[in-house]
Write a structure and sequence with these properties.
By secondary structure, this protein is α+β, with helices and mostly antiparallel strands. The chain has one helix at residues 84-97; strands spanning 17-19, 29-36, 46-48, 60-62, 68-71.
Length: 101
């Protein structure tokens, strides 16, 4: 994704991001969680190891606290996808961060 110029400690520039909005959300925007290769010991960061399915070149950490809606025009290319177990972890962390039931 091209997240543009960052402000303060925002995720920015070109980086992988996980699209977390559902497939039925077909408008001109997608809700994403940026990924970083910088390890921070925040309990809401999820480690994602590279594999053939996700297409990541290195271990990344999902910045769930930087959840944002971006234009589909910011998508550069699809790298891959996360498995069902990883997506369940993502949903659990986002539910905690957003105080959802």
């Amino acid at each position: 994704m091209d997240l543009g110029d960052p402000v303060d400690t925002e995720a920015g520039l070109f980086r992988p991001a996980l699209v977390v909005s559902p497939h039925r959300f077909t408008g001109p925007f997608r809700v994403v969680c940026p990924l970083t290769t910088t390890l921070r010991t925040y309990p809401w960061r999820l480690e994602v190891e590279p594999d053939a399915a996700n297409g990541l070149p290195a271990t990344c950490y999902m910045q769930t606290e930087q959840l944002r809606s971006i234009s589909t025009a910011r998508g550069v290319r699809r790298l891959g996808s996360l498995d069902a177990v990883a997506m369940k972890q993502v949903r659990r962390v986002l539910a905690l961060l957003l105080d959802l039931p």
